[in-house]
Amino acid sequence: MGFFFFASRAAARFLGEARIIHPGVSTAALLVAAASGGGLVAYADSAGENASSETSQEAPRKKKVVVLGTGWAGTSFLKDLDCSKYEVKVISPRNYFAFTPLLPSVTCGTVEARSIVEPIRKMLEKKRKDVAFYEAECFKIDASKKAVHCRSAVGTNFDGNGDFMVDYDYLVVALGATVNTFNTPGVMENCYFLKEVEDAQKIRRNVIDCFEKASLPNISEEEKRKILHFVIIGGGPTGVEFAAEMHDFLVEDLVKLYPAIQDFVKITIIQSGEHILNMFDQRIATFAEMKFQRDGIEVNTGFRVVKVSDDLITMKSKSLGEVSVPYGMAVWSAGIGTRPVIMDFMQQIGQTNRRVLATNEWLRVHECDNIYAIGDCASITQRKIMDDISTVFKMADKDNSGTLTLKEINDVLEDICIRYPQVELYMKSMHMLDIRDLIKDAIGDSHKESMVVNIEEFKKALSHVDSQVKSIPATAQVAAQQGHYLAECFNKMDQCKEHPEGPLRMTGTGSGRHNFRPFRYKHLGQFAPLGGEQAAAELPGDWVSMGHSTQWLWYSQTSELAHTDAGGIRLDSEVHIWEGFKPNLALPNAASFLVEITLLNNFVVFGCV
């Protein structure tokens, strides 16, 4: 290692004692101090040998994974990621995860805000030191330098600003979306939104302020009607659920506290489409509209809001033209828009004139090798089979005969269905049993026995398959599934490089198989609470349930929140009890069966009678 020569005992004693007291101080520094004390010290060290020994023992550097966002997608990814394999850094302007389906309940006090949030650091506690969290906002993604530029949300640095830069090997963009005002004048200045916990708390305070203001003795009846007119712009799930929560809050609580002004309260929903809940089954939309009509909630469909002032909402319809209505509070829930950082990034990579980032079926951003996008900020571009039909035909034609037999098609059919799921969806929609039925109509009578097709007949057989390509909705359920899928891919990335488990490559960009199977969204159903202990549900298999019994399905997903602290929030809002309810939903009147619920030690027990 080295050798020492001391000209005095004092120098030797000083060095020995100093190394015991200051073990972290370098030997060279101690020798200088010893020499300054009057002793002569000679020292030699095999530095080159030590350096090479330490280098050989160093572990390989972990790849850096930077996650932007702590919403459904980002949190689901972090929850399932094996962080011991990577150096993980999480960047988000909010240091908590919010259970967004319960935001409308927070606006009216049905659920407290603290009950639907979970601190990110607490969620990452099990990861120990493998994850670093920065409470900051990313304002620029630099794909060329593999870095993200951030601005602190809590403080500044010595330069007087809170800007800093974080580099990455893999970037997971899960920034979600912002509100979409469609550039309608006055919306940002005069409307409330319902995207964050802070939004729900603002609405809650303003509702009470409206009632207190309307209770003042110097307010006329006309002014009271205006102040107590609550308008929801947008008839989607968020707007409908907020209207239902608002109605229950009024009839169950506020009328007791403000009995003198209860007759002046009015709730209105403005929807540009022909029906509210237009993403649900038509039966659910009709049921919701009829219930709101009974409850006294006014639903104006076919109206588009063109301007919002501080006391008037101007809307336009084809039949009535422009109509202006006075209001006391307006909540805008008419859609989602793109965040500025995402728009800037899309311009960098050539994805202009798009609403969200375009990714492939493996959630990787187009033209970016190590950047993935999940959640509301991205959409999957499913490749069409007709774009690759020649490559698919050539790959299946192993004997290069220029024709395909039924056996040759069946040999690659599984890979085709994995790579192009629209093939299987089309066959199911047309009630086809197998591939034979698909190609039967495309070949002539002379080929029906041998079932041999050429390239033109193969194209004809698959010409209508791409009609089944559908976009995935921007919901929490989708975001959570994408986060889980991407985490699984990261966990087995090295393994799948050596042993790929994906389908055959059919796009002409390389040979062999893809490392992973592409992402597939599994729809687990969707709920629409309608107030008055009633709800509507659209479940897998074209099942629809409406009424009081369906409300218990919704309670089953949120009951833990009422009996545990924030740590009890469940990240998976899947309908786990679907199989148990399926036989009952087959009854002629699905709402006629009774569901009993028992809460015992935070477990939910269901019984149907």
From TrEMBL:
SUPFAM superfamilies: EF-hand (SSF47473), FAD/NAD(P)-binding domain (SSF51905). It is found in: Mitochondrion inner membrane. InterPro entries: EF-hand-dom_pair, EF_Hand_1_Ca_BS, EF_hand_dom, FAD/NAD-bd_sf, FAD/NAD-binding_dom, NDH-2. Keywords: Calcium, FAD, Flavoprotein, Membrane, Mitochondrion, Mitochondrion inner membrane, NAD, Oxidoreductase, Transit peptide. PROSITE patterns: EF_HAND_1, EF_HAND_2. The keyword Oxidoreductase applies. One of its GO terms (cellular component) is mitochondrial inner membrane. GO terms for molecular function: calcium ion binding; NADH dehydrogenase activity. It is a peripheral membrane protein. It catalyses: a ubiquinone + NADH + H(+) = a ubiquinol + NAD(+). Residues 384-419 form the EF-hand domain. Belongs to the NADH dehydrogenase family. This is EF-hand domain-containing protein.
